[in-house]
């Protein structure tokens, strides 16, 4: 899934586009941590799994960069707790 997620560095957010709509995660790279401040999906994408696919891509990017994820966003935090395969990334 990470191949679908792109880093929009100018806006400090990871983005996933589906059917012309965007799901995004606002982030900050802080030392070895990837701080996820907010995750949001456009209304047409809600309930489609797009935000979950976005978070999976974010987690894969964090892993490939050797970073851990500090979720400040409730959605990101609950997603990481539910997906134990990425538990090692949680700060």
Automatic annotation (TrEMBL):
SUPFAM superfamilies: Acyl-CoA N-acyltransferases (Nat). Gene3D superfamilies: 3.40.630.30. Pfam families: Acetyltransf_CG. The lineage of its organism: Bacteria, Pseudomonadati, Pseudomonadota, Alphaproteobacteria, Hyphomicrobiales. This is N-acetyltransferase domain-containing protein. InterPro entries: Acyl_CoA_acyltransferase (IPR016181), Gcn5-rel_NAT (IPR045057), GNAT_YJDJ (IPR031165). Residues 6-91 form the N-acetyltransferase domain.
């Amino acid at each position: 899934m990470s191949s679908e997620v792109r880093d929009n560095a100018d806006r400090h957010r990871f983005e996933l586009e589906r059917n012309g709509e965007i799901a995004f995660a606002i982030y900050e790279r802080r030392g070895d941590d990837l701080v996820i401040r907010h995750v949001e999906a456009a209304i047409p994408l809600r309930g489609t799994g797009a935000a979950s696919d976005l978070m999976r891509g974010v987690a894969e990017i964090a892993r490939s960069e050797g970073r851990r994820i500090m979720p400040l966003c409730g959605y990101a935090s609950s997603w990481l707790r539910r997906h134990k395969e990425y538990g090692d990334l949680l700060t």
